[in-house]
């Protein structure tokens, strides 16, 4: 009787062990299946270049002949472009036969300073001239990018183009280009990105002769800001 009882116990133990082994194998198979079906996912996104550009101007007002008059336009750029950005300027009236500053309803206009042709790089001088040379050109309209009143500084302003300061002996001036050859006046290259607004001021020079016809003159200009 004892021997028969032991056989039953042994059979029970053997069956229990077999059940455990089967459970382990099933669990191992499930784990293996889960591991075998694992996959890695990489999310990608490209953030587009955003640029917001506004301008504000102080006008010449009433101009006295033979007395230099000044005006300004402030350029305000906000962008996420880490490659930098640039601004071009052109005159809507300017052509081979027309000057920028024209008298409304009349053929009269103010002579432009020699049209701006920049150097190949912002470190290379173009055809801008200092104010003394500008005065010798006669009664003209001219422009330059100022070094003062700038929150963007050197990254945008080329001292090779516009002079190392705004002083009359070093500040350089040029004529506004026509709409067919819009040219860069500054370039904030890669590395100059920040989340703040970038302000740069363009200054205008105007001198007219005593014989310049009276009346309201206008010179529509187009500034264009572009991400590099």
Short description:
The protein is of the alpha+beta class.
Blueprint of the fold:
Layout (H helix, E strand, L loop, with lengths): L1 H35 L14 E8 L10 E11 L5 E7 L9 E3 L5 E4 L16 E2 H6 L3 E6 L13 H4 L9 E2 L9 E6 L9 E9 L10 E2 L2 E7 L1
Parallel strand pairs: 5-7
Antiparallel strand pairs: 1-2, 2-10, 3-9, 3-12, 4-5, 4-11, 6-8, 7-10
Oligomerization status of the protein chains:
single chain
Could you tell me the strand content as a percent range? 25-35%
Outline the low-pLDDT stretches.
1-7
Number of continuous helical runs: 3
Chain-averaged pLDDT: 84
Coarse structural class: alpha+beta
What's the number of extended β-strand segments? 12
Global geometry: elongated
Summarize the amount of helix as a percent range: 10-25%
Cross-sheet strand order for the largest sheet? 1-2-10-7-5-4-11
Summarize the biggest pleated sheet: 7 strands, mixed
What gyration radius follows from the Cα positions, in whole Å?
37 Å
